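User: Can you write out an input/output pair for a complex, sequences first and structure second?

Assistant: Here is one pair. Inputs:
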Amino acid sequence: MKTKLSLLALCIAGFSCTSAFAATDPVLLEQAIAKQEAELNKLKKDLAALAAQQKEQKETQDKQAEIVATTKQQNLESMFSKFSFKSYGSMNFTSDEYFENVQDTNPERRNRFDLERIVTEFGYQFTDEWDMEIEIEYEHGGTGASLEYDGFDEFGEFESEIEAGGEVIVEKAQLRYRPSDAIGVKFGSIHLPVGLSSMLHKPNQYLTVQRHRSEAAMVPAVWNEMGVGVFGELANFHYQAQVISGLNSEYFRTYDWVASGHQTRFEHVNADDLAYALRLDYGSFKQGTAVGVSYYYGNTTGNRNKSNKVEGDGTVSIATVAAAFVEGPWILRGQYMYGTLSDADAITQANKTTPGLKPGNFAQLGSKSEAFFVEAGVDLGQFTPVPITIFANIDYSNPLAEVETGTATKRYENTWTSVGVNYFPIPEIVIKAEVGLHQVAVSSIPDTNFFALGVGYQFSL
Amino acid sequence: MNNFKYSAVAFALIATLAACGSSGDDSSTPDPEPETGFEFAATEMITNLTDDVIVSGYAALATKGEEMLLAAQTLVNDPTQANLLAAQVAWKAARLPWEQGESHIFGPVDSLGIDPHLDSWPLNTTDLTTVLASGSGFDADTIKGWNDDVQGFHTMEYLLFGDGVADNEKAIADLTSAEADYLMGLAEVFRDYTKTLDDAWQISHDGQTGSNAYGEFVKNPGTEWNTIYASQVGVIEELINGMIAIVDEVGNGKIADPFGTSIDTADTSKVESQYSWNSLTDFSDNIVGVRNVYQGEFTGAADKQGLVDFVNAADSVLASRIGSEIDDAIIKIQAISGSNDMPFRQAILDADARVRVQTAIDALSKLQASLETDILPLLNEWKV
C-alpha cells in the first residue's frame, strides 16, 4: 500500500519540474548557455593550470628522488671506502722423509696435502685517526664438530664427531690511533715485530713453499700477543715498541724452544709476567730493501699455572738482526736470531714433574738457542715474458744450542737447503715448487730429501 | 541440543586422552630391577687389591730400586765380572714388579708422568753415545734434566748387557768407566722415581704435604673428600680398564709391532728389552700382573678377594673361564721361546717360532675380547 503511494508522489514531482523548464523563453536559455560555457572555459583553464602544477611537482619529485639515490650511493661508497677486506692463503703438497723413532735410521717417505691456511682480514677506518683490524685464520681446513645420524647403531643414534684437526684463530684484533706518520698507538691482540715471519707472512712475501722453518723452531711463527704498542716512521726509520703478555714456560719444549709457550691453548692469557719488544728498521721490509734489529725481553715463571714449581724468573731474551735487498730482479733476505733462557734446568725439571704436562722426551730446554735463514731470488720476469722467480734458500735452527748442565744433543740442530721457483700467472697468485736437503747434525742420522709444491693467493678490496 | 551433546562427548574424550598421556610421565613408578642383576660387597676386594697387590707391588719396586742403586755403586767401586752379573740380576729383579704393575698404570704413575721417566722406549742410543763420549757430569741431578730417552730401565739395560745383537752377556772389560759412572747416576735417578711413586700411593698422591695418599682415594670412593672416585663402580671400572689396556699393549703393541706381517717386515729394533733378552719375561710378567689383579694376590700367596670374586658373584662359569684365558695367555707367551730357549728378538725372525708368536697374539686377543665384552658390562648389572 505504502509503495503505491510513494510512486504517485514521485510522478507528481516529475511533472512539476518539466513544466518549469518549458515555461522559460529563448533569451533566458541563451544566457544560461553562455553562463555554462563561461564556467566550462574556466574549468578548462583550471584543469590546465592543475596539470602544469602536477607536471612541475613531478619534476621536482624526480629531481629529489635522483638526489636521494645519489646521496644513498655516495653514502654506500663512503661506507665501503672505510671498510677493507683482505685475504690470503696457501695450499701445499709436501713430500718428506721421516724416521719412525729415535732408533730408526732408515727413513720412509710420506706425501701430504695441507690446506695450510686461509686468512681473512677485516678492517674499518672510523675516522682519519682511528681504525681497527681483525684477522681470522683458518689453519689446516679449520676445525669443527658435527652431529651425525648413524642408522646402523642400535636403533639409530646421533653422534657428535670432531670433523677436522685444524684450527680457527683470531690472529690479530687491534685498534689503532694514528694522528701522524711519526707516531701511532695500537692495542689489542697485536703482531710482535720479532722475526721476519710476523711481517712477511703472505705467500708472495717469502720464496719457500712453507714459511721459514728456522724461525718456527724458536719463536711462535706470526707471533701475536695482547698488549699495547707505539709505532711510526721518521725519515726512513721505522720503529715499534710494545708491552705485551709474556710466555708461559710450562709448554716450552726441546724442539721449538719457547715457541709453544705462546699461550693459545687457554681461554685466558696469564699476564702476571709482561714482556717488552722493540724494533728499529731502516727502510721497509714489507716494501723491499731494509736493515733492522729487534729485541724481546720477558719473564715467564709468573705465567705458569703452577708458578711455585720454578724458582727464578725464566727470563727469555731474543735478539734478531735482519736485512733485505730487493732491487730490480734481485731479492736477498736474511735473518739471524739468538735467544737465551734463564733457569732452563729448573723449568725442564718442573715440566717433567708437573702432573698432566707430560713433555716426555721433549722436556730438556736450551739455555741458548739460535736460528738463521738466507733466501736469494732472481725475478726472470724482468728479462723474459715469463713471470718466474728462481730462488735458493738455507734455513738453520738449533733450539738446544746450549744447555745449563751437561751436553746438548745435536739431534735438534737442523739445516734445510733448497732451490725452487715461484711462478706468478697473475700478480695475486703464486705457484711454488721447491726441492731440498734436510740435514740433522747427528752423524748417524742420514740426510733426507724433500720436495714441495704450493699455491698461494692474496688480494685486498 | 545435538551440538551440545557432541561437544560434551568430544570434551570427555580429550580429557580422557590427556589423563592417559599424563599418567605416562608418572615418575613415582619404580624402574624394574634388571633380572640379571647380582649383588656383591666390594669394599673388601677394593681394599685388598689396593694394599696387597698395587701398593705392595710399588713398595717392592722401590726396594728393588734401592738394591739396583747399591749394585751399581758396588760395580763402580769394584768393577768385577761378579759385580756386573749382580747388577744384571738387580736390574731383572726391579723389572719384575714394574712389568707386573703395568696392569694398573693409573693414578700417580700416569699423572706424575713417572712411566716415561722409568720406562721410555726405544732407547736413544745416538744421544747416549754422545753423552758417554763427553765423559763427565753424570750426577743424578744433571741426568734428571735430560730427556727420558737416555735414562730409565732401558738405558741401564744397554749399559749392563751390551747391544743384545749376538748375545746378552757383557764382559766387565767392555764396561767403560764412563758407562759405569753413568749407570750409577741413572740408578740414583731411577731409585728416586720409584720412591716418589711408592710415596704417592702411600703418603701423598701429589707430593704436597697434607694431601691424601692415592691408595686412600681408591679405598674410599664416594666419600666427601674424594675428588677422584665417586663410587666403587668407578674404582672397579678403572681396574678392569687397566687390565684391558695392558693386554692390548702386549698383544697389539709389544709383540705385534716388531712381529710385522711377515719375516720381511719384522723389525728387531722395536723389541722391548732387546739388550737383556728379557722380552718374553717382560710380556709374561705383564699378564701375570693381570692375574694378580684378577685373583687378588700374587702367584702362590694365600687366597684373598680379587676381581674374580666380583665376576663369580655374577657368573661362576665366566669367572673360571677368564681365569683360564689369563693362564693360557701367559703359557702361550712363555712358549714362544720353544725348546731351545729362543729370545723374542730371534723368534720373530724364525719361521717356526713365528707360528708360536701368532698363537700367543691370538690368546691375548681372546682374553682382551672377553674382558671387554663379558667383564666390563657386569658393572651395569651389579646392584650397588
